[in-house]
Write a structure and sequence with these properties.
Radius of gyration: 36 Å
Main location: secreted
Subcellular location: Secreted
Keywords: Glycoprotein, Proteoglycan, Repeat, Secreted, Signal
Shape: globular
Structural class: alpha+beta
Oligomer: single chain
Pfam families: Fasciclin (PF02469)
Number of helices: 17
Strand content: 15-25%
GO cellular component, one term: extracellular region
Distance between the termini: 168 Å
Strand order of the largest sheet: 2-1-7-6-5-4-3
Length: 441
């Protein structure tokens, strides 16, 4: 009996262990367990109406990485609407992301939309920044994330995360710079064409070839001599130092930085002026192709909204405003800040000759202009490719006009009544005879 009781005891103990293990396996996984169940936020994303984003996540081979992230902590996903990825995205940029050699850029772009933390809609009213899974930061202010409107807060909520709908795709600076760099490299030809040798007609000898100008060398002519005579719908051709051999595709680089302004957000008005006033974009592209470098001080949308109709109604006024915001030098935030720290005030040339842009240090940043018409460096290094630099400012700059002469302080002019002139003979007679005759008085 003792042996039978022991056998029954071990049998029931083994049966209890088996049932406990099966029940534990059947229970749903909790966040942090390292496994994904049907109630996970990743499953909700793949089955949601954000089909374009879900397709990109699968093409980027990020499912395993996101499963590991969900297994460690809650996540927050900012999902762009399908229109932002189908019709509103630049086709060339989309093809760049889908190329197999640019897989890391696609992964960085998608992980830029995911935070390793649960953030709900009540927190959007605060101003803060948080690191994403791509090790770059998202900035939250006034209910927006990186200037993108959050259209559907708390659209999908799950125990291990939350999905918010946003109006457009968020593009990190590293991906944008990689895209611009590859575009610039494609525009440089590997072999430059050479012309036939020339013979000097006087000596009947071959002419010596001039020393080649390296790519990127400063041009021979000043930039004002290479510019068109004035703003017009079709700029007149101007002599360029590079001739037919353009080492840079200036039009493509100007297009890149305009796209960067649109993707960055908050500079749509400036981009709209550059797109609609085709003479400006053409002029800038031609100057960059001929070897010149440019720094664009781009006012944000809030600053452009303060312009009055009187300031824009005059013929050529938008062109003159933009010309004053273009410096014919390559400057970055670091170079400008070091200059104003060292020299106090720095006056940069502008394409609106002969007006200059004054810069000085203020509040730990760079301040442009003077008085009420000043502007601060607001978004530094929006676009930098070695030829064009775009710096965001929070105001529209105008050149300092000459102070008019005050009419009240001006010296009064005294009018002298002109005496009637007499003939020479009459003057000689009056001198000899004195003032005896009435005509001499």
């Amino acid at each position: 009996m003792a042996g039978l009781s022991k056998l029954l005891f071990f049998f029931f103990f083994f049966f209890f262990l088996v049932m406990t293990t099966s029940i534990t396996t059947a229970l749903p996984d909790k966040p942090g367990s390292g496994q994904i169940n049907s109630n996970s936020v990743l499953v909700a994303l793949l089955d949601s109406h954000y089909t374009e984003l879900a397709e990109l996540v699968e093409k980027a081979l990020l499912l395993q990485t996101l499963e590991e992230a969900v297994g460690q902590h809650n996540i927050t996903i900012f999902a762009p609407r399908n229109d932002a990825l189908e019709r509103n995205l630049d086709p060339e940029f989309k093809s760049f992301l889908l190329q197999p050699k640019n897989l890391k850029s696609l992964q960085s772009l998608l992980m830029f939309h995911i935070l390793p933390k649960r953030i709900t809609s009540p927190q959007f009213s605060d101003v803060f920044s948080h690191r994403t899974l791509s090790d770059e930061h998202l900035h939250f202010t006034n209910g927006k994330v990186n200037s993108a409107e959050i259209t559907k807060p708390d659209d999908l909520t799950r125990p291990d995360g939350v999905i918010h709908g946003i109006e457009r795709l968020l593009i990190p600076r590293s991906v944008q710079e990689d895209f611009n760099r590859r575009r610039s490299l494609r525009s440089i030809a590997a072999v430059l064409p050479e012309g036939a040798p020339e013979v000097d007609p006087r000596t009947h000898r071959l002419k010596k070839k001039p020393s080649p100008i390296p790519a990127g060398a400063p041009p021979v002519l000043p930039i004002y001599d290479a510019m068109s005579p004035g703003p017009s719908l079709a700029p007149a051709p101007a002599p360029g130092p590079g001739g037919p051999r353009h080492h840079f595709n200036g039009e493509a680089q100007v297009k890149d930085f305009i796209h960067t302004l649109l993707h960055y957000g908050g500079y749509n008005e400036m981009a709209d002026i550059l797109v609609n006033l085709t003479s400006l974009a053409t002029e800038m592209g031609r100057l960059v192709s001929e070897g010149y470098v440019l720094t664009v001080l781009a006012p944000n949308d809030e600053a452009m909204a303060k312009l009055t109709t009187d300031q824009l109604s005059e013929p050529g006024a938008p062109e003159q405003i933009v010309y004053y915001h273009i410096i014919p030098e390559y400057q970055t935030e670091e170079s400008m800040y070091n200059s104003v720290r060292r020299f106090g005030k720095v006056r940069y040339d502008s394409l609106r000759f002969p007006h200059k842009v004054e810069a000085q240090e203020a509040d730990g940043s760079v301040k442009f202009g003077h008085g009420d018409g000043s502007a601060y460096l607001f978004d530094p290094d929006i676009y930098t490719d070695g030829r064009i630099s775009v710096q965001g400012i929070d105001g529209v700059l105008f050149p300092e006009e000459e102070t008019p002469v005050d009419k009240k302080t001006a010296a009064p002019t005294v009018k002298k009544s002109a005496k009637p002139r007499r003939g020479k003979l009459m003057e000689v007679a009056c001198t000899m005879l004195g003032s005896q005759f009435p005509t001499c008085q």
